[in-house]
Specification:
This protein is α/β, with parallel strands linked by helices. 45% of the residues lie in helices and 13% in strands. It contains 28 helices and 19 strands. The strands form 5 sheets. It has a 7-stranded parallel β-sheet with strand order 1-11-2-10-9-3-4. The longest helix is centred in the last third of the chain and has 17 residues, at 444-460. The radius of gyration is 27 Å and the shape is globular. The chain starts with a strand and ends with a strand. The model is unreliable at 1-11 and 428-439 (pLDDT under 50).
């Protein structure tokens, strides 16, 4: 397929090109690098379309509720529907309940369908013949009751559109224009719906995509639209947006050297752009590659002399939350959700029983009893198969009290627990305030703690009306106000209180009531619940501050879409096999996927900086240092030992 690329630098001509393509009934892609003002172009296209086609309905779909609100505020029109991708899909299919139920039952009963298992009381998948009541979309999943959530909606919607041409015609006729913000993070099945399913009978609506393939750092996203580009009807025509409004010259030059897709940015010509000087010149900026034989990041900060306490101006970016947790003060929470080797041992035993002892009856037995029975009579290699690994043994030795508690717990309860750091962190795109949004991976315990901290913050920041609305607090006298203030102060200055104490206090004071979800979490995941409840609440406060951007730390994924005057990037892989900075700098040809993934994450990091950028590499090889001198300039590569 021949790719048609239209290169323009003026925002007006870019918008004109996109509108011309829309008039011709062609779908389009606006590719713009970091800081190019893609949202500005999106709003311009929406505004122009509503003026030219005032009776046509336009759908604009994006990833977060914050983006929805921003677009709505900048492009308000009665025929414009702005929503998250998941809400858009649910609204399209929710009225077809008979078809929905059939699709969901098929997915539940298909062993090849991942994520649709309904488990019996032993934790094994079982089939369903019917679902009572309507299919509903909630922030939690309960497939047996017909409740689907964020992760299931895309698969269900994809099947609905594949099976029912009428549904495709309805959506196509309802929205002649569909615009997709940050397309690179959109799930491939969503792109398939828009560009394949809606066009399979020859007709098509106009689909416009806005984004940057170089910023595709989420594995679940489509990444790029290369296989859809072309000048045929229904295919996608690309328009490149080359101007950069955010970054100074030094960072634009570095970013261009990182890109490998043909897009090369130039400074903006808009005198009001952040990277422009009052005299019409462009900010030069500063870029440094620092390295040392020591991994002491504090020494790097001292060398730079930036004010890292000013979290609005300065950020330290790390690849993983694990590298940040101890620095930011929530190391024990991260251990529970991403380092518990006792649960790993339970999984080891569960796998052994499934493969070697399929008739073993574990019901009604504790974990300790199960271990005693399956170890009985075994020696040597056979015994080693059911013993903890070396890493598990070290952990168990360090947490003997926790292990003894686990031995006394029902084996079936432990074996059914699934713990993942996303249940604590939820590093997907998010926005402050959407604590219980559809699609949040945080578990019900962490969500409950977030509600407490959020409500306390609402009051302390003076958002009293919103506080009263969400807590349903009744304040009718000065005495009520004083009592309420005392409750908030007590929940704010927690000192050495445990999480359990704060949860109970918040319940009694009416700030956040203990609900069925938390009670159910306690019953079904007591092992995790008791560990978290025993921690100091101040540790959770540290987690909250980190996730809401009130600390100088951030992951390189989480900072996407944001900008700061000063950015320090710590080039540490964090034992994550998906990324390797050494491979990137040495251009390992045999590790192409890892190199490309690392190139993109580094691009996103570097382009967050509006003035000063520094990268720190611990003990780089001579090859890495030589490559850095090419990318950053010899004078900007410094050893700080």
């Amino acid at each position: 397929m021949v790719t048609q690329v239209i290169q323009q630098t003026s925002p007006i001509s870019e918008t004109a090109q996109l509108l011309a393509l829309a008039e011709q009934g062609k779908s389009f892609l606006l590719s713009g690098g970091a800081g190019s003002g893609k949202t500005y172009s999106l709003v311009e296209v929406i505004t122009s379309l509503t003026e030219r086609k005032p009776l046509s309905r336009i759908a604009c779909i994006t990833y977060t509720n914050a983006a929805v609100r921003e677009i709505e505020e900048r492009a308000l029109h009665p025929n414009l529907r702005v929503s998250t991708i998941h809400d858009f899909l649910w609204d399209a299919i929710k009225h077809f309940q008979v078809e929905l139920k059939g699709v969901l039952l098929d997915l539940i009963n298909d062993p090849a369908s991942k994520g649709f298992d309904v488990l019996d009381r032993y934790g094994e998948p079982e089939g369903l013949t019917f679902i009572e009541g309507d299919i509903r979309y909630k922030e939690y999943v309960r497939l047996r009751d017909g409740v689907i959530s964020h992760d299931e909606i895309i698969v269900v919607a994809s099947e609905m559109f594949k099976r029912h041409d009428k549904l495709c015609r309805i959506l196509r006729d309802c929205y002649p224009f569909v615009l997709v913000d940050e397309y690179q993070d959109t799930h491939p099945q969503v792109v398939d719906i828009l560009l394949n399913q809606l066009t399979k009978n020859g007709k098509s609506n106009v689909v416009g995509f806005f984004g940057d393939a170089m910023q595709a750092i989420y594995d679940s996203g489509v990444g790029d639209l290369d296989c859809y580009k072309g000048d045929a009807i229904g295919n996608v025509v690309e328009v490149m947006k080359e101007q950069n409004r955010r970054n100074p010259l030094a960072i634009i030059k570095l970013a261009n050297s990182l890109r490998n897709d043909g897009l090369s940015q130039v400074p903006s010509t808009d005198p009001k752009a952040p990277n422009m000087l009052p005299d019409g010149g462009v900010k030069l900026g500063a870029v440094k590659f620092l390295y040392s034989s020591s991994d002491d990041v504090n020494a790097v900060k001292d060398f730079l002399g930036w004010d890292f306490a000013n979290v609005k101006n300065t950020k330290e970016l790390n690849l993983t939350h694990n590298l940040i947790a101890s620095k930011a003060g929530f190391g024990e929470l991260m251990r529970i959700y991403d380092g518990d080797k006792i649960l790993d041992y339970v999984k080891r035993i569960k796998k052994y029983i499934k493969l070697k002892l399929p008739d073993f009856i574990a019901e009604g037995k504790s974990f300790g009893q199960v271990l005693d029975e399956i170890k009985a009579g075994k020696v040597g290699k056979l015994l080693k198969e059911v013993e903890p690994t070396d890493g598990m043994s070290v952990y168990i030795e360090n947490y003997q009290d926790l292990y003894q508690a686990a031995l006394n717990m029902p084996y079936s309860d432990l074996a059914s627990i699934y713990v993942d750091k996303d249940q604590l962190i939820d590093d997907k795109k998010t926005d402050q305030g959407d604590l219980s949004r559809a699609g949040s991976n945080r578990d019900d315990l962490i969500k409950h703690l977030f509600k407490i901290q959020k409500n306390v913050r609402l009051y302390l920041e003076g958002n009293h009306n919103e506080f009263l609305r969400v807590t349903e607090h009744a304040v009718s006298s000065q005495k009520d106000k004083m009592l309420l203030r005392e409750k908030i102060i007590s929940l704010s200055n927690v000192h050495d209180k445990t999480i359990r104490q704060v949860v109970e206090e918040a319940h009694k004071s009416g700030i956040v009531r203990i609900d069925d979800r938390l009670k159910n979490f306690k019953e079904t995941r007591r092992y995790v619940y008791e560990q978290v409840m025993a921690l100091r609440y101040s540790e959770f406060q540290k987690l909250f501050e980190y996730l809401e951007g009130f600390t100088p730390f951030s992951t390189q994924h989480k900072t996407k879409g944001r900008e700061f005057p000063n950015v320090l990037v710590v080039l540490n892989n964090g034992n994550w096999n998906s990324y390797n900075f050494d491979y990137l700098f040495t251009e390992r040809a045999d590790k192409e996927s890892v190199v490309n993934r690392t190139r993109k994450i580094l691009y996103v990091c570097c382009t967050r900086a509006m003035e000063n950028l520094a990268l720190f590499y611990h003990q780089p090889s001579d090859q890495v240092v030589d490559a850095a001198k090419v990318w950053f300039g010899k004078d900007n590569v410094l050893c700080i030992d």
